Amino acid sequence: MVGMAGHIRPIPCDQCGAESFAPLFVKESSQGQTFQLVRCRQCQLVQVNPQPDLEAVAPYYAGEYFEKRSERGYDNYFSSALKQQINRVYGLNLRDLGFDAWEAGLSDTGPWQKDLQGLDRDGVAIPAPATDGSTRNLFEGRPPRCLDVGCAAGYFVEYMQSRGWQSEGIELSAHAARFGIEQLQLTIYIDDFLRSAVLQQGHYDMLSFWASIEHMHSPRRVLERCYELLRPGGRLLLSTCRWGLLARHKAARWRFMNVPEHLYFFSLSGIIRLAADCGLRRISHITYGSGFTSCKDAGWLYRAGKQIADPLVKWLDQGDMMALQFERSH
Ligand SMILES: [Zn+2]
After folding, report:
1. What is d(CA 154, CA 180) in angstroms, rounded to the nearest whole number?
2. How many angstroms separate the alpha carbon of residue 243 from the centre of ligand 1?
3. Ligand 1 center to residue 33 CA distance, Å?
4. Domain boundaries, position 101
5. CATH number at residue 237
6. Which of 14, 171, 180, 208 is spaced 20 to 30 Å from 189 by Cα?
7. Separation of CA 287 and ligand 1 centre (Å)
8. Which H or E element spans position 159?
9. How many structural domains is the chain composed of?
10. CA of 224 relative to ligand 1 center, distance in Å
11. pLDDT (tens digit, 9 = 90+) per residue, 260-318?
């Protein structure tokens, strides 16, 4: 049982303001607290409600959060094998979302395409080496600017830096952020995205949220802030677990049903509608993941199941993870 700091109380729906909810099920947390999952009767958003406030969820993010994750398998977030795996997913997501093509258009003279040798087997961009051995600026003029929100140790910040971007991150957990700041020499603000005074309006060409928005207390205010911080025409990349066929089927046993770390469970149409309300237009999306998670010691039957299920759910657009690309359109 965790300490009594903070409050757990009923809140109106963050997405639509309604106060009427249909109960779904109760789920126990890793620390033995139970939480009620409900669906908003007006907009259908699935959420933890009554909801623990920032103080009440704090014990779940204490020290070892990034070193030990039981169900999701962050065996050690800081290991290089995991980092490689994460970079590979970034590269594939950016390619599949069509981000590469947009990025190539950011420079008038297009040095990006001619200087990019391609992606290595881990999906990491490989710039062509400069002939004089110097570090080459991949973009003419000012490099584009991006901010990764909920960046943890900053792997995506580092990844975008390797693609030639002026890359920053923001992270509430000082423990995770310090690794990126000290070991990787990255620019990471240890701050709250909604309150931070260092972030400038209209400044960023791209903002990203990799499996972080479902942790935040007000996704609507977060997306409104994204609109303010992006320049017109700037892009938002967002991935989150997806409330769809697989999630409804597994319910409390669903692999992403980690409460109270995850507070919101968006459907594909739900997150698109919320973003549109905040002035962010959907450009593209992908869904992936079947619930067969990667496991080194898996038996042949399990591996065969994964090999069939993963491409199938992707093809059917029924994956239980989704990644989306939005644009600030005006
Ligand atoms: Zn609602």
Report:
1. 5
2. 15
3. 25
4. 64-242+269-328
5. 3.40.50.150
6. 14
7. 23
8. helix 155-162
9. 1
10. 17
11. 999 999 999 999 999 999 999 999 999 887 765 555 566 666 666 677 777 777 777 77
